[in-house]
Amino acid sequence: MIRALITEHELAALRLLAQGRTQVEIARTLRIRPETVGQLLNRARILLRARTLPHAVARGYETGLLTLPPHEQEAEQTSGAS
């Protein structure tokens, strides 16, 4: 349901935030202004009903909107088996 509401631009900014990038780094990557990044992330936060941006990232993973990269999924599966 959220997938239908969030734009590709908002999702791209959220993915980069989840990777630990700053707003300035996200802006450079997406070739937009840092203020625009803030607007995209704020809208994504609202759509995900999150209190903060880190909470938005967590909600992104919880809802399946964000997924771990394949190499991190393998590491998580391996550590979970121990």
What does this entry look like structurally?
The chain contains six helices and no strands. It is mainly alpha-helical and 82 residues long. It has one domain (2-67): Arc Repressor Mutant, subunit A, CATH 1.10.10. Helix 2 packs across helix 3 (23-30), helix 2 crosses helix 4 (34-47) and helix 2 (8-18) crosses helix 5. The longest helix has 14 residues, at 34-47.
Give a short summary of the structure.
The protein has 82 residues and is an all-alpha fold. It is built from six helices and no strands.
What ranges have pLDDT less than 50 throughout 5 or more consecutive residues? none
Sheet with the most strands, sense and barrel status? none
**Structural domain tally:** 1
What global shape is seen? globular
Tally of DSSP β-strands: 0
> Alpha-carbon distance between the termini?
35 Å
Average pLDDT rating: 91
Helix content: over 70%
Name of the CATH superfamily: Winged helix-like DNA-binding domain superfamily/Winged helix DNA-binding domain
**Could you spell the SSE succession in H and E letters?**
HHHHHH
The assigned CATH architecture is Orthogonal Bundle
> What is the number of helical segments per DSSP (H or I, 4+ residues)?
6
Please report the first level of CATH classification, the CATH class: Mainly Alpha
What is the structural class?
mainly alpha
Give the radius of gyration: 13 Å
